[in-house]
Specification:
By secondary structure, this protein is mostly helical. It has one domain (about 15-114). It is built from four helices and no strands. Helix 1 packs across helix 4 and helix 2 packs across helix 4 (about 100-114). The chain is globular. The N and C termini lie far apart (about 35 Å).
Amino acid sequence: MFAPGRALLELSAQRQIQQLNTEFGAPAAVVAAAVPALSAQLDQHAAAVRDILELGVEDSARVPLIVLLAGYVRGLLDHFAERADGFFAGAPDNWHDADWLQLRLAAVCAYADD
């Protein structure tokens, strides 16, 4: 039986985070550069994600960060889909009105870039 190697797993995770960055990360970063409050929110979310992955995932140091982030995003979206009957509007039209999930997804992208 073929088991995908580490490189394939990392490539898949990288693609997922790149797609997320196109929709959430890059647009949020543009606005955050001009709006300190949004920048602070993204920083707080990114710090929370870092803590969750470093402290809440056993042996996280042995797993590539991009793979951890992609798994975290999948978990978030799965959890949200269960709670919201599968409806997710995507990125906000106005980042000033972003909800928790939209901010968290943008923060994952910011953390991945660091």
